[in-house]
Amino acid sequence: LVLPPRKNSPKLKPYLWGVLLQNNALYTHVFCMKFTQYFLTTRQRPDRSLIKLEWIEFVILNPEKEQIQEDGRIKRWARIHEMDNRALRVVLLQDGETIHNAFFDRSFKK
């Protein structure tokens, strides 16, 4: 399922997160994410391209810490086990859904 972006709106990108086999039935988990153009551009950098979308989803749904900026953007952090427990910071727009930035935060303190 790919929806065409509306003019001047963040892009909506569904992706398959995982597959679960239970009682001989196949279940999938689809999590739709909206991104700013800034996120899509910075994600092309080598240091950002290694950040998996499922890690971003994990941070959004399971933050260890959350902080609201003065401009209304929401910062969330969580540690990523697969990356030696480094803290991933995800910045959401005021709507709480659109991803504006995601990076490993070396200065994270709980």
SSE layout:
Layout: E1 11-22, E2 25-35, H1 37-42, H2 46-49, H3 53-61, E3 65-68, E4 74-80, E5 86-92, E6 98-104
Parallel strand pairs: 2-6
Antiparallel strand pairs: 1-2, 3-4, 4-5, 5-6
Write a structural description:
By secondary structure, the chain is an alpha+beta fold. 17% of the residues lie in helices and 44% in strands. It contains 3 helices and 6 strands. It has helices at 37-42, 46-49, 53-61; strands at residues 11-22, 25-35, 65-68, 74-80, 86-92, 98-104. The radius of gyration is 15 Å and the shape is globular. The model is unreliable at 1-22 (pLDDT under 50).
Strand order of the largest sheet: 1-2-6-5-4-3
Low-pLDDT segments:
1-22
- Number of alpha- plus pi-helical segments: 3
Order of helices and strands: EEHHHEEEE
The shape is: globular
What is the β-strand count? 6
Proportion of strand residues: 35-45%
What radius of gyration results from the CA coordinates? 15 Å
- The computed structural class is alpha+beta
Report the end-to-end length measured between terminal Cα atoms. 38 Å
| Average residue-wise pLDDT | 81
Major sheet summary line: 6 strands, mixed
Helical residues, percent: 10-25%
